[in-house]
């Protein structure tokens, strides 16, 4: 049975997307735990002395 060029294209796209998803998630959590840092309170402005 002869395969069509579209079938090769489909398998290529599937392989590329699979590899991309593996590479995209490979770096998750590499610098420690993932968390949202606490918000720092806004800086209070000091009144200028005249």
UniProtKB/TrEMBL annotation:
InterPro entries the UniProt entry points to: LptM_cons
GO cellular component, as recorded: cell outer membrane
Annotated membrane topology: Lipid-anchor
PROSITE patterns membership: PROKAR_LIPOPROTEIN (PS51257)
Subcellular location as annotated: Cell outer membrane
Keyword Lipoprotein: yes
Keywords: Cell outer membrane, Lipoprotein, Membrane, Palmitate, Signal
Main location: membrane
Stated name of the protein: Putative lipoprotein
């Amino acid at each position: 049975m002869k395969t069509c060029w579209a079938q090769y294209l489909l398998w290529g796209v599937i392989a590329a997307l699979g590899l991309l998803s593996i590479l995209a998630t490979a770096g998750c959590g590499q610098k420690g735990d993932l968390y949202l840092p606490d918000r720092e309170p806004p800086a209070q402005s000091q009144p200028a002395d005249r």
